[in-house]
Amino acid sequence: MYDVLFKVVIFGDAGCGKTTLRKRFITDVFISDSSKTIGVDFETKVLEMDGLVIKLLIWDFAGEERFRFIFPEYIYGAMGGILMYDITNYGSFSHISDWLSEINGTTPRFPIILIGAKSDLDDYREITYREGQRVAKMMDLKEFYECSSKTGENVKKSFALLTRIMLNRMTTKKTEILVR
Fold first, then answer.
1. Which residues of the chain have pLDDT under 70?
2. Domain residue spans in the chain?
3. What is the rounded distance in angstroms from the CA atom of residue 138 to the CA atom of residue 101?
4. What CATH superfamily is the domain 4-179?
């Protein structure tokens, strides 16, 4: 039984760590040999926040170009999103605006946080932390984190923050309805 249900989408270029992030959050274990996502993968996680039982429906969207045409169908009804890039791959960072334009053209904007993945590979970094912060602010994204699915750094924190943002948004919308 749960009090609140939120659909969350994880998206970004292929190979940026979406599946390992999802699996680390669900199991709290790093699974390095994950296979490529074909189309979309889906899992649920139940957590407690503010005395509420919250069920997250987590949709992990394949980042390959050949699946991009189905992306609008899978984000329908999303209440929050995680847009990811790989800090060791500038190409994945340069496609942030492409992913956002896919969303802006299909659905009302939901809260999105930007995550620079693979922070444990700092020696191979191609995008600085400050660049990630700057782009998140410029694109009007709710927050920016770097995380590592391998070490667990900021994984739970990222999902907790997004859940908090969605809860606050839900509370604000209920208040707006009551005021009218």
1. 33-40, 63-73, 105-108, 173-180
2. 4-179
3. 14
4. P-loop containing nucleotide triphosphate hydrolases (3.40.50.300)
